[in-house]
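Hi support team,

I submitted a single chain yesterday and got back a structure, but I'm not sure I'm reading the token output correctly. Could someone confirm the output below corresponds to the sequence I sent? I've pasted both exactly as they appear in my results page.

Thanks,
R.
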Amino acid sequence: MNAVVQSVEDNQPARVNGVEISLEAIASESRHHADNPDPSRAARRALVVHELLRQRAVACGLIDPDAGFGDDTLDALLAREVPLPEPTRDDCARYYEQHRSRFMRDELVCASHILFAITDRVPLALLRNKAEDTLNHLLNAPATFEPVARDLSNCPSAGVGGSLGQLARGDTAPEFEAAIFEASDRGILPRLVRTRFGFHIVRIEQRVPGVAIAFNEVADNIAQFLAARVRHKASQQYVLILASAAVLENAAIEPASSPLVQ
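Hi R., thanks for writing in. Yes, this is the structure output for that exact sequence:
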């Protein structure tokens, strides 16, 4: 049976094949999704996914009906239901060639930023709008970056005009690292950088080129990354298939219209 529910009543509990997920549980879970534009909806979706997987684990005999569903059971379920090919050495070599800029040693970036931190007190949309307005101002008046950083940034670096000094790979959040190392831009970056901490306006002052790391040194890490990426995508598709066969109410998840994983 396929059940596609287009609307969600946020003031009602969710149900997965008749099992209720309470509003209290959704409210509690929403604290873990504070950086999402709609934390309550994201929490509802996460709990529905968890219940879909738990019910499938019970149906497969991996756990008892009243048992908890943890990471070990999830791994066992995915290994049983979603077999995945291991990346080959050729796959890894191809990724290395296509992303050589990621495999550098001693690469440095001198950068400054202005952080608009996510808090419970300010709606996310309002915070984003303020950050975008500030970015547009700075793109037209870049010389004002440091005083604006002192006035507005929610980072301790505000005291030094937003300066973060020299940064190497691994020094910052992954999203921030990608923004400053994956491009060749100098000056104020033309787009906001979103991390779990909030919205950043970033200025690049200097780049110090690194030394390329040989493929053999990073081949194992690339293989692990590619395997994790495939696993993540296949897991998402698997959940959609489970949703397509479930009776969902106020679930905030769209079941798949056709099989994606055999």
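A quick pointer for reading it: The chain is about 45% helix and 15% strand. Let us know if anything else looks off.

Best,
Support desk
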